[in-house]
Amino acid sequence: MIVLGIEGTAWNLSASLVNEDTVLCEASAPYIPIAGGIHPREAAQHFAGSVASVIRQVLRSIDPDLIDGVAFSQGPGLGPCLRIVGTAARVLSLRLNVPLVGVNHCIAHIEVERWNTDLKDPVTLYVSGANSQVLSYRHKRYRILGETLDIGIGNCIDKFARSAGLSHPGGPKVEHLAGTSQNYVPMPYVVKGMDFSFSGLATAAQQTLSSAPVEDVCFSLQETAFSMLVEVTERALSQTKKTDLLLAGGVGANKRLQEMLAIMCEERGAEFFRPKSEYLQDNGAMIAYTGLLMLSHGVKTTIESSAANPNFRPDEVEVQWISG
Amino acid sequence: MDQRLVEATVGAEAKVSIYADVVIKERVPKGYRIKALDEKLRKERTRLEARIQSDARQSGVSTPIILDVNDYTIVMERIKGDLVHRVINERIAEQVGETLCRLHAAGIAHGDPTTRNMIVSAGRVCLIDFGLAYYDGGVEARGVDVHVFFQTLEAMYDSAQQLKEAFLRGYARYCSDAALVIDRVEVIKLRGRYL
Q1: Do A198 and A309 fall into the same domain?
Q2: Using CB atoms, which residue from B11, B37, B192 is nearest to A227?
Q3: I want to staple A244 with a disulfide (CB 3.0 to 4.6 A). Which of A40, A122, A129, B90 is the partner?
Q4: CATH code of the domain containing A70
């Protein structure tokens, strides 16, 4: 089976062709803000201007008659962006006369890495700009064991970075500056049961800029936020009695977060899989591959039910492609 | 004092050593956290756990008496008896309902009320392990507690339905707004996220 997938939830517009074994082709047109962060309307305008050429690039590599289905990111994400991708996918599906399938973006992050690592049943820490969740499969669903009560970790870091005068995306710059400090300034550490909160931390970090050097604030922000994530992840491993940990999402590229997860796993005898960076960020292949799993298990999306779903939660999806 | 070690267990956060007469719970350091943050968290949580556990006791909920609190350790009375996990029946489930309701009425959520965190001692149900407890008397916090307890019943016992009903009889006896909590349990269950 060959599936064409289109990702476009926030910043990266990306189309890809995959079969069961490999990524056949991928083309992307990321949206890069001129100033500030991701502006939903501007991102969507960029998507609208580039979606045809991105799709044309991948179609050029194959005889379109060989395509068995079209997958698209249905959510969660920015509504204006999702609607562009949804429209493109509907047109393609009708034009090629193949089934359409709407994919949950969070699940796609997990599936593409399970594909790469051959992991059967891991606990996943999924950390990106907008999302921060700890997920684990049980009884036909990816259960959300813990999640942010307000903003995602990437958003927290980016907000702080903007007020520190660092350009978008702020994550790598904050990581670099944090690496040059060892001075911890206490910050709000908010874990409630299995959930965590980052909005107070973002505000506190912004305010601390007036009383401490920027490196120290970067260091303290990272240490606090990542400790919260690792603590909840450890508790999820302990509760589920699972022994494999996956890290997904763009913030997963952070070396300090990877190091902390590796130490936690080593201390408790679990296995941590360091992700390949090309699959951490949003990409078309993850949508195409998850679409392939869904289509090969008979899951399709009708045109009527293909509307964008900006708050699409992973536990809304019945997982047909895993048995047990 | 009898010093013999009976049993030792290590959880996600703490090491628990059970001696003949006392239990010592020590929060262990985590290598992934920097020392300053690690020590601060372990101290704060040890203090909070001890405070909640003794507050619960003052509200009439049977909990182990706290004998000593240090930076990272709590020394408490050892409750002798049987884990509810092993001896549960409808009468005990009803008592668990009364006990949890009394705790909730005091504005405390236990956080992990499984049948292994309760001991029947001298005919009373005693709650142990306040490591995940927090101050919150809201419907959501109480609903999560009840849901966690129900989950352990469903996972372990064929008579789960009767035990749940017995629990609710006990819970409704002292909590006049029990119906609100029970409705919330249904909502929480559909989210399917607590194990």
Answers
A1: no
A2: B37
A3: A122
A4: 3.30.420.40
